[in-house]
Structures are given as structure tokens and as C-alpha cells.
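Case study.
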Amino acid sequence: MAVERERAGAGIQLRRYPSRRHPQQERDMTHASTLAEHVDNLEIPDELDRDWFTSSFLVSCGIDPHSDVADLCEDVLLASVLGDDAAFHLRPGGWRLNVAGTAVKALLTGALLGAALFHYGATDIPAELLPAVIPLVVDVNRVRLSRRERELLVPLRIASAGLGEMAVSPHVLYNRLEPSVRAELNFGDFADFCDRLIAAGHLDDAGLGDVRTRPGGRPAWIRVTWT
Amino acid sequence: MTEDEVSAQQASTRGAEEADPTLSTDLSCCLLLIGEDEASSGIYSPLAYRLRPRGDDLAEHHVMHLHEIHHKALNDDTAWGALIHVAARHPGWTPDFLALLVANCRTVHESFASFMSVSLARTRHHDVDRVFDRYPVYRPLAARFERLLRPLQGQHRRELAATGIARWCMSAPVIDLALSAYPEVLTLSAIPSAMRPDHRFRLAVRVDSGQIEAAAAAADRAFRKDNGGEVDTVALTETDAALDTAWGVWEDAFVAHLVASVPRLAALPTLPPNGHLQSAASLTRAAAAGGLTVELPHETDEAPLSDIESVQRLLNATTLALREFPYRGALAIPGGEVDLEEVLALCEASGRPHVVLHGRRVVDLARSFNFGRGDRGRLADLAPGPVFAIRNLIDHDGEEVILHTEVTSPDAFASLAGSWAGRGVAAVCVTASCFVEEAWQQGWLPALRVWPIVVLVDLGLAPMVGEGRLLGSQEHVYGTYLGLGRGGVRALAWHVDGHPHVMLVLGDDLTVQLFAGQLEDTLGLRLSLEDSDWSQWLDVLAAVTSNVLETEPALRYDAGGG
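After joint prediction, the assembly is written out as follows.
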């Protein structure tokens, strides 16, 4: 996976894209769908197993099932469901996952995005916890997937319902996470993650340790391309 | 069944699970090797590992055992592993925290154990990769190391590199965090991701092949300088300690060069090899100051282990499961709860009539069977020394129970022997851990010798060497391997010249090999594994092995529970 850098030495490999995309990119996107649309269009079996996950889902996203990105996707997916005894079963022949359709779609999307973000450099937070943090910083529904270019364009938008452009401490964002996630997520790691988002221009530094979400109409983008 | 009996049974079941966490239904604190329905399986907990060989596939049995050995090795030698050991043993530290610690190293642990077990088994089984067909979840885990280490020449370099990387992943200064929080229990959220093994592993596996090759070249140079040759030419006949030292040079140089050349790895806090021992000792001292005892696998001033000691540490942790859960047990005294003649009639009714009198330590007996509350109380009140009993599998109200008919005195045994005369094979089976406690022998042994005595080995061999001990000091020792016709379990028997008894070890193939290696190391030229006549013992050994395998829940080598 290649990543385009905006700032050398900024510590995070993110690039902010202008709101008007390059004509070439525009052309590519005519053949692209959002990740949510892509997952919606998948025929997901009632019982999801490893073979389907790697051969059908990852391959459809252009991910080599024998790559470390695929390993990451699987790790993140399994970490998301391991605590749910009713849904997850380590059975002879591999794992099986039995969850209602919509939940599976959210899990698949989260696994892919978590792995992608971790793989291209958002490594402050353990990969398995990223799906819990992503909704705080990324509008998942608008993640785009181009199979031909195998790229993800992730519009970053802080899930800040009620926060607007108010300056808030990273503590406030951290406290919006589920308690079970906070029990496993180190606050220092989360704060470092926010710092990297600021360095890459996806969050604004509001001074005195606070952060501010970006104003509407100026979406910031992360571009990730599989190689 | 009355409420009291139900309660008693539940209490006894809980007792068995508490003694062996691998029997618990909640395995979140364990690392597992689970395959298809009839595949062999292994469960590692920080206290022990439990093996369940199935079928006759020796390659599969070797992979199973080597897999669990590598979980133990990785935990015993690293900071994160030491924290797991503390969390498993420290009173008041909840299983939830232990489960989180295990969850955060599961990927590196399973990848390492899967890669190493198959790699080492390949020296005996060229087609060992087929074993993964029965463990499909573990193939991609092993593939993480294979993909990463493909640029390295030779399987041995790859094994050293995998060991170095896995240990590095588990070597953040996390014990210091626990120490600074003590006596408060550390929480996972207090541990930054930079110290978590799986996080470090995911960063490490993204290293490119050029960096791996450069690190190996640096390790080769360091090894040549230190040992004057290539790392894959060291003679395997050297002792474990010598090999560990030599290979450690390559492993340490490889990791040091690799980490230094990758900024994202160099930025992560890392202890040198064994750098956690000082902090771990401080943590156990802090616990001791509060009146708590927390024992860890290694100490700071520990000398390098000999071959025999390192094998014994493995054997201490090994449990070879013979059935899923222990039988319910019941104690009975002839003339009271049971009629001796009825018991002997049961023995006589088996396919090949035989009776075996088992001698076991009380603690060993108590953990091996789910006794009711009354029997547990009775065991607790018994005088020190072995409990001698005949075992029969009986049907009690639809439930299978092992009836232990106690033989309470040498005179009672003499009466039993007289009643059995001429009715079939008879033998005494006493564990070695009973035998090394000598106080009971003077009263019992002269009587017991009416029947052939088999000493069942349940501890390491080192304490058995010496004048008057089980392995003697000068005598010649004749040994033989036994085929049992039961998949997964092998046997090795030996006889010390001039001793009235024989010794028998039962285990999976690798365990029996480890004991054979201990015998060779311990006895040297005194041992002969060829040219001995065992015809007089075959019926006795067959009776003892079948009786042990039919009634014991597991084979263990921890001196009957310590």
C-alpha cells in the first residue's frame, strides 16, 4: 500500500486533498463506489467463515489474501468479535461468525478501515482498537473504494455531534468512546493520534491542548492505495 | 441425588478446575491449539499446558507438543510473559486482566508457536506442512513469520530470527509499570500500545526483505567473530547451555541490527534479554512484603540451566490428557462400604483377569478424581504417605465412577494377595513421587514385594540418582520401548540391575523421548536400550499400563502435585 505524504517528517503519512479532485481522479471515481455501498452489494452468507472473508471479501476489495494487510484485516475483525461468545466460534476447520447482516457489514467495514489506517501509518493505536476510534474521526459511510485502483479515499470528519467547531480537549473525545474501549485504550496513545491528525491537517490545534473539528465544506481526505 | 450430594459434586468439580485452569470452560486466559474434530489439541495456561494427542499421526503429535512448549518458552523468558505469570498467580488480580494480557499477545504467541513447531518437526517429518490441513487457522499465523523471514538462508537462521523477533515483541519494560502501580493492579489502559506485544509484532512484520537480509548479515558477522564459524554449523551435540549461548549471539545481533535500522521499531521501549528479571524480582519482593507468595519461572541470579534441568522444567508443566474430564471418584474400605470378594470378582471378569494396586500421594489422588465432600474430608485426614487402592470402573446410578477400594495396611494387603492367588496377573503400581518419600517403605515394601512392583515415573530423573535411590549409582540399567497399541501414548520401561522393581514412563512420543534423553544424560554408559529380556514383565506391564490409561484422567510429571 502506498501513501502520499503531505509533509516530510510530520510523522503521519496523510495527504489532504483539495475539495476539487484531479480530473483523472474524477474519472476513476465514476467507477468507484463507497465502501458502504460495496459492502451493501455483497452477498454475505448467514454464517461468515475465514474462507469467505479472505477469498470473497478481501479479494473483492483488491487485497491479496496472503499479504500482511489481509492479516491485519483478519486480526481486526476477530478482535472485534472475540468477546461475543454468541456470535464467534472457533470451530474445527477455522472460525465462524454468526451475526445479523447489518452488524456484519459494520464489522467488515471497520476491519478494512482499521487495517488500512494502521498499515499506512496511523499506528499510535493498536489496530484492533481502531474500529472503535474510527467513528470518532472518520465518516465511514463516505469511504470510497475503487477496485481498479484499489484505493480508499477516507473523508475525515470528527463525529462531533453537538460539538460544532468548539475547541475541545482530546479527553472529551476520548470520553465519548465506550467504557469497554477506554478500559483497553491508553489515553496517551489516543492523544498522540490526535496530534498526528493535527500535524496532517485533519484536526485544528485550538491551543492550550485543545483540538477543533474542521469547518464544514472543507473535507479533509486520506488517500490510501493498495500496491 | 440429594441437594447435599449435588452441592458436594459441584464443589469437587470446582476443585478440579481450580487446580487445572486448562479444564475450565473459560479459556480466555489460555493459548490454544485446536483443529478439526479428531485432531490432537493443546492448551497452554501460565500454570501448565495440557496435551491431548489423538490418532496415530506422529508428525501431528510432535507439532502439538512443540507448539505448547514454545508458548511456555516465550512466556518464561520475557517481560510480558513474566507479567502474565504474576497476573496468574497473584491473589486479588482478576482473571479479566490476565485475559486482556493474553489477548494482547495472542497473535505473536500463536504465530511464533505455529511457525516454530512445524519448523522443528520438519527435521523428523519432511511432509509436516500437511499437518496444517487439520489446523487451518494456524497456517496463516505461521505464514506471517515465513513471509517475513523468507530472505534468510537456512531453516535454522529463520528459527533464530523468529525467536529473536518474538522475544523482542514481548520485551517492553512493562513490569516497571506494574511495579510503580503496585499494590494497585495495573490496568491495560495504563499500558501504552508501544509496549503491547501484538502491536509491536504488527509493526515488525512490515519490515522489508532488505532490512531482514542486512540484519542477518550483521548477525552472521557477530557470530563469526564470537564463535569462529557459521551459525548453522554448530554441533548439536553441545549442551543446551552452550548452544543457547552461541545461538543467543546471533539472535541478539540480528534483533539489535534490525531494530536499529527501522526507526518505528527503534522508537519502541525495549529491555535487553533478561532485562526484566530485576524488576520482576522487585515485584515478587513487594508482594512478599504484603505476605503474598508469587513465584516466577526465572530468578535474577539463576545460573544457566543444564540439559536435565531445562527438560525437567518442561516436564513439570506438561499434562497429557487421557480424557476430557476426570472421572468421579469414590473411596471404599473392604468390609465396610464394599465387599473385597466382589471387587476381585470385577477384576477377574475383565478380558485378561488382572488386579493392580495403585499407590498415590493424597494430593495427587485428590486432584485426579472428582471425589465427593465426604471422601475429600477422609483424604485430608489420612496420615502422610501413599494411599493404596484397587481401582474399578463401575456404574453408579448411571454415572461412571472409579471405585477406589482402599488397602489400609500391609496385613490387609497380605490378605488381598492371598485371596487373589491363582486368579490372574497381579501388580503394584506406585508413583516415583511416592517412592522418593521413604518413611512408608519400611512398613509396606516387604509386604508389597509379593507382587511385582512397577514404579510409574511422575517426576524428573535427577533426584533419583544415588546410592539406594531409584536409579542407583553404579548399577547397569536396561531399558526398552513398549508399543501400547493406543494412539498417542508411548512407553519406556527400564530395570536397574539388582532392584526388585521396574520403572515405567508413559507419555506422548516427545515426552518419552525427553525422558529417554534424561536417562542417557543421567546414566551415560550405565544405560543400555538394547539386548534385554523383558518376557517375564510383559504381562505385568500390560496390566499396569492398561489400568493406568483406563482410570487416570491425565499423565503428569510434576511429582504428584508438588
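Observations recorded in class. Chain A has one domain: 2-225. Chain A touches chain B through 30 residues (CB under 8 Å). We will return to this complex in the next lecture.
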